Amino acid sequence: MSTTDILVARGRRLVAGTGALATAVALGATLLAAAPAQATPGPPKPYGVVTAKAGLSERQYPSTDSSVRGYLRHRAHVGLVCKVRTQNVGGNSVWYLTREERATWVSAKYVTNSGRVKYCKDVHRNRVQPKHTAKHVVG
Q1: What CATH code is carried by the domain that includes residue 51?
Q2: Res 123: pLDDT
Q3: At 137, is the pLDDT very low, low, confident or very high (cuts 50, 70, 90)?
Q4: Are residues 57 and 121 in the same domain?
Q5: Are 106 and 96 a contacting pair, CB within 8 Å?
Q6: Of 62, 72, 86, 110, which has the fewest CB atoms closer than 10 Å, so is most exposed?
Q7: pLDDT at residue 49 above 60?
Q8: Does some domain include residue 21?
């Protein structure tokens, strides 16, 4: 085999390798462009979206007789801690405890929830309660 033949064979392998590399780069760019964009983190789940066109009052307790502590606009997102069944509002007796700075209550009649909202009794039952240590006096 002559030197020319060896150089020609190396050139062919080099061209074949360059073509494979170009194909891999093009395929990688295509896959990268097709990958879904990372979603921006939303409110922690579960959360609710206010559906009342006029907005929704946040209450101190789960009742319309309770004092108003705040106001949520239409389509506002609000974190939900738990739910209880109390006063019926428009055929819905569920009220949500919110995750805002101040714990307030909103009627589920005007909130569409995202994710499963546990009952408050279940949430409070699963919390770690501090153990009371009593000193025994031996006398």
Answers
A1: 2.30.30.40
A2: 79
A3: low
A4: yes
A5: yes
A6: 86
A7: yes
A8: yes
The amino acid at residue 83 is K
Mean pLDDT value across residues 114-124: 88
Q: Note the pLDDT of residue 32.
A: 47
User: Are 81 and 123 within 8 A, CB to CB?
Assistant: yes
AA letter at 10: R
Same domain (yes/no): 5, 31: yes
Backbone angles phi, psi at 43, to 5 degrees: -65, 155
Long-range contacts of 74-79 (CB under 8 A, 24+ apart): 74/50, 75/49, 75/50, 76/49, 76/50, 77/42, 77/43, 77/47, 77/48, 77/49, 78/43, 78/47, 78/48, 78/49, 78/50, 78/106, 78/111, 79/43, 79/44, 79/46, 79/47
Helices (H), 1-139: 3-34, 120-126
Both 53 and 86 in one domain: the answer is yes
